[in-house]
Amino acid sequence: MSLPPFERFYEQHREEIFGFLVRRLGRQHAEDAFQETFLRALRAYPNLRHGEHLRAWAYTIASRIAVDEHRRPRADADLPELESLDGRPAFAQLEHLADQLPPTERAAVVLRYGYDLDYSDIGAALGSNATAARQAASAGIRRLRQKELR
Amino acid sequence: MNAVSPDLDRRFRDAAAEEGLLDAAYDFVDSPVGPLLVAASKRGLCRISYDAEPDRELEELARDFGARVLRSPKPIDAARRELDEYFEGKRQSFDLPVDVASLADFNRRVLRELARVPYGEVVTYGELAARSARPRAARAVGMVMNRNPLPIVLPCHRVIGANGKLTGYAGGLERKETLLRLEGAIL
């Protein structure tokens, strides 16, 4: 699959990426993170060799930016909007723990259980493959269960 | 609601252009000959299309200039202004830089000669071929006109048949007539 014109990529993914960022950061910070996500995507776009796994790629960029935003010290830190967690109760209960996982496991868990991407997309997003992505996600889940039991 | 607001969308499109991240920016410009899809690369104006089918146009822009093609109004503002002035009869030539670097040598040479045909005047395909140092290439010149990436600005509407007939126009003869009438080249 060849790389689509950026306009098509943007139109296709902007709404779900924005929704993802609102859930992670709250509406106010999501706007800046949204702009940064797509600017970063635009900078990297010429280096992509094909048009596969673009959705997972977009989520990966957005996740990294959301993590950076979280780490940034803020006086006005706000809570994610509660309504946004609707519809994903099972994952929502674990989501706050996922931030403590090692980066690859966290990305695999969030993309698989929070955003329902399949393992080949996740593998591509992580620069590995479906098998590695599955292993990372199950390692992450094991770790989360242990945390939960503690 | 967790939807991207028009304001946020616009801010992203402006920022993308401001940071110089686009291979081609495009937008639509209203005109008396219908909406025009107008695109600009980093070098200058690179496309004006009548009756644009966005899917095909975006693919072509991506192929000719690079995949970072985005609708972004600001880079098109200068072209919009000059086109508006032209259609109001207040402008006879365009000052914008144009980007025809992706075209073949012959096409570029013919288009360079075409750009010298003054407002309100017409030239035949044969004459334009002669000016491009290929006097017998009237038919090839016709093809170049047919594929002109920048109609109106590169005035292929000013090229007519040897018999004085308007002959053809990629945007349709009605538009050719409208443009020539606007310029006072025909009554």
Keywords:
heterodimer, A: 150 residues, mainly alpha, Rna Polymerase Sigma Factor, Chain: A, Arc Repressor Mutant, subunit A, 2 domains, 7 helices, B: 187 residues, alpha/beta, Double Stranded RNA Binding Domain, four-stranded mixed β-sheet, two-stranded parallel sheet, 6 strands, 39% helix, globular
- Biggest sheet layout of chain A: none
What is the CATH architecture annotation of the largest domain in chain B? 2-Layer Sandwich
Total helix count of chain A?
Answer: 7
**What low-confidence regions of chain A span 5 or more consecutive residues with pLDDT below 50?**
75-89
Distance between the termini of chain A: 46 Å
Assess the beta-strand content of chain A as a share of residues: under 5%
Task: State the domain count of chain A.
Answer: 2
Biggest interface, and residues per chain?
A-B, 25 and 22 residues
Gap from first CA to last CA of chain B: 56 Å
How much is the average pLDDT of chain A? 81
Number of strands of chain A: 0
Assembly state (oligomeric):
heterodimer
Strand content of chain B: 5-15%
Estimate the global geometry of chain B from the Cα principal axes.
Answer: globular
CATH architecture classification name of the largest domain in chain A: Orthogonal Bundle
